[in-house]
Structures are given as structure tokens and as C-alpha cells.
Amino acid sequence: MKYSAKIILSLMLFFAFATCKKDSAPSDIPNVQVDFYVYLSEPSNVNLNVVTGWVYVSYGVKGIVIYRRTQDEFVAIERNCSYQPNNAGAQVSVDSSNAFLKDASCGSKFYLSDGSVANGPATRTLKQYQTSYSSAAATVHVYN
Description:
Layout: H1 2-18, E1 35-39, E2 54-57, E3 64-68, E4 74-78, E5 92-94, E6 100-103, E7 109-111, E8 117-119, E9 128-134, E10 139-143
Antiparallel strand pairs: 1-10, 2-3, 3-4, 4-9, 5-6, 6-7, 7-8, 9-10
């Protein structure tokens, strides 16, 4: 009896790990070095002075969108779509609602607030970079 219980438990654990989805696993988006500051006082960044404001910047793989989630919290999301990221057109843009990022080539839709999938065919969240906000300096540091 002891051996059969151990075998059953071992099989259950094996199948539990073997069937796990890896949607949150890293995609084929290249890892590039990102380390820059966004100055909220610059005219090009005026949209970031309000909650839900966003701007595009020319860093990362295919650009980054910076979004102000709360008064003190910013997110920096890679614009390279997580669905077939090596395709030339795999780039997300903020849609007309200002709530989603959409890839026109595959139709995938992501929440602007965190890059998670709203509608497929993508199954993986968009890549995010670290952010650090200094209200005293009115800067957002984006890095990995």
C-alpha cells in the first residue's frame, strides 16, 4: 500500500507540472538594456502629468509606452507584441479609447494599465520594465 500511494502521488505531481500553462513565461522578445529618465517637465511628456496619461519613447525593442497608473505609479511597457514578436509589424499602439494597446497586424489587445491580455490571439502579457518615480525631481526612471 505504501508504494502505490507514493506512485500515485508521484504521478499526480508529474502531471500537474507537465500540464501547467506557461503563458507568463518569457517570450521571444529580445532582452535589451534599458536605463533612462523621463522628465515630466519636458513639453513632450506633458501627458504624463495626469493619471491615465501616456507617452511613447524610443527605447526597448520596438519602443516603450509609459503610462501613469496612479499619482505615484508609472508602468513602462514594451511595444513589441508578445504574439509572434519577430514579425515586422508586431508592435502595439494605444487605441482610440486610451485604455488598450492593440497590435494591428494580429489583432491582439492588451490593457494599457498593466500590459495583460484583453483579447487574443496573444496569450502572454506584454514585457514590462521597472520604473521608479521621484516626485521631487519630477522624473520617472525606466530600467531593467
